[in-house]
Amino acid sequence: MTDASTAAPNTNARNARRQRPDLAEQLQQLKTGASADTGAGAETPAEQQPRQQQEQRPPREKKPRPQGQGQQQARKPQAQAQQQPQRAPRKVNPVLERLFELYPQLFGARFVPLKLGVYEELIARHPEDFKAEDLKIAMGQHARSTRYLESVAAGLARHDLDGNALDPVAPEHVHHAILELHRRRTHRNPGEDLRPQLVARIAKAIEASGLDREAYAVLVRSRDANNNAVVDEALAELAQQAAKREALLRAFEASGRTEQEFAEMYGMKPGEVARTLQHARAERQAPAPAVAESAEPVEPTEPAAD
C-alpha cells in the first residue's frame, strides 16, 4: 500500500500554497496604488487640509455700489462748468490795437501815464490813421482801464510819445486814481474790509507828494464825506508815525550813544535807526505849515487823455 499522503496529492495544501502569492500580489498592488496616488500630480493630506478649509469658508459679500455713482462723480465737474456762464471775450478797440502797433512801449504789456495833450499830438502825427472821434473814445477807454489807473496811482512819471519820462503825475490825480481802484476792488469783494489798505495807500501818497499834510488835505478834499474821512484817517496815522520818530530822535540825543550802540540798546536794526533819525531830523527842520484859508472844496478832474 502506498502512503496516502504520498499517493494522493493533497489539494487543500496546493490551494493554500497558491493563495500566498495572491495575497502578496494584492499587498503589492495596494502599495503601488498608494504610491501612485501620492505622486507628483496628487495632493498629500497636509496639502488637502488648507484647500478643504478654504473651500469651506463662506464667500465674502461685496457691498453693492450704487448704480451710476462713478458716472455722477465724473459728471459733477462737467455740470458745474456748464452751469457757470461763459464770458464772451472782449473785443479790443481797433484804434487801441493800432496804437499798440505804433507805440508798444506805451500801450503794450506795461502801461505808463501819458503826457497832457497826447491826444492832440496823436492827431497831428497820424491824421490818416485815426479819426478824431474814434481816437477820443479809445483814449477814454485806455485812461479808465485798471492797468492805467494803477500806473497813475503808483505816481509814475508821465511819458511822451517817444517814451521819454517827463513830470510826475499831480498829487490830486494820484489820489483820485487810488480812490477809483479802491471802489472797484470793493465792488469785486463786497464782504472784505479794504479800508485799512486804502488809508495806508493814501498815507504813502501824501508822503510821496512832497506836500505837507495840511496842504495835501486842502488839495484833495471834496464834497464826499467818506473820502474826506479817509484822508483824515491817513493824516492821523502820519501824525502818529511822526510823533514816534520825534520821540526816537529825542531818546537818541539824550542817550549820548552812537547810532550803532543805540540800535543795539533798543534791539533795532542800525539801518532802520539811521533812516528813522534822518526822517525825524528832516521833519524837525521843515517850516511850519501855513494856515490855509477856508475855501470851497473842488473836485480835481483828470484830463481826457488820462
Q: What does this molecule look like?
A:
The protein is mainly α. It has a domain at 92-169: Fertility Inhibition Protein O, Chain: A, Domain 1, CATH 1.10.1710. The protein is 64% helix and 2% strand. It has 15 helices and 2 strands. Strands 1-2 form a two-stranded antiparallel ribbon. Strand 1 (157-159) and strand 2 form a beta hairpin. Residues 1-9, 11-19, 34-42 and 290-306 have low confidence and may be disordered.
What is the structural class?
A: mainly alpha
End-to-end gap? 161 Å
Largest sheet: 2 strands, antiparallel
Strand order of the largest sheet: 1-2
CATH class of the domain at 92-169: Mainly Alpha
The backbone outline, from C-alpha atoms, is flat
Mean pLDDT: 79
> Low-confidence spans: pLDDT under 50, at least 5 residues?
1-9, 11-19, 34-42, 290-306
The CATH topology of the domain at 92-169 corresponds to Fertility Inhibition Protein O, Chain: A, Domain 1
| Rg from alpha-carbon coordinates | 50 Å
Instruction: Determine the strand fraction and express it as a percent band.
Output: under 5%
**CATH homologous superfamily of the domain at 92-169?**
ProQ/FinO domain
The level of helicity is 55-70%
Task: Give a brief rundown of this model.
The protein has a domain of 78 residues: Fertility Inhibition Protein O, Chain: A, Domain 1.
SSE blueprint:
Elements: H1 4-7, H2 11-37, H3 45-56, H4 69-83, H5 94-102, H6 104-107, H7 118-125, H8 132-144, H9 146-153, E1 157-159, E2 165-168, H10 171-188, H11 195-209, H12 213-220, H13 225-255, H14 259-266, H15 270-285
Antiparallel strand pairs: 1-2
